[in-house]
Design goal:
alpha/beta; five-stranded mixed sheet; 3 helices; 235 residues; four-stranded mixed sheet
Amino acid sequence: MTNSLANGECDLRTYLGKLETLVSLSFGRFRFETKVFPSLPSLLATTEVTAKKSYKYVNDCHRSDVVHFRASKKTYRHFGLAILATIFCPELSELRIDLQAPSSQIRSVTIRYEGTTSRSVLDYRTQPVSFDYHPNEVDEHPWTERRPPERGWPEFCLTYSGVEPWRHWDERDKIEGFGGDDASVLLASLLLDIGRDDNLQHCVKLESPFQYGGVSNFSPEIQFHLPESDAWPTP
């Protein structure tokens, strides 16, 4: 169980702040591999990320859940690094991040990766070695011109932290993700890009396959907001 943090405290910054500085000083181009990551505990907490739930209707016939995240640029970069640490550090097969901001309706995000990924060839698995990050401009719908990763878009499982989650549909309060290693690396790269100093896109949307796409079939839609976003849901 994580300790309660004071307002403004963030374990992501504590553990990954130095690495984020190295990435920033590399003029954006950086090779991620196991040796660059610090040793992380499997449970972290932050008061610097808020996540709220809403929903919308598509074509007046399909209801789609939406999860909205809000954080500073620097915190999004720390979040992206946490995802990459889970992918490239074999000892860290699961990382839970407790969201302790008082107004956050999502109380935790759990990142999982078993260390290898099954590919389309029978009984063939691959293991991540490195990722060369290159900064990109961010659009509101960032992946419309991109083919989906081999194992699909990032997965965000919105569920309930207690027992019998099917009885607590409105109380769903945790996210589990993010699918295969290629989908997780793609998401981490996006969060690093959102956190760039020169990013002017204040709200980034990953939508259902019925619209612009960006999340797996059974995921809620995801929106990443910066503090300046005017699309943040009001109570």
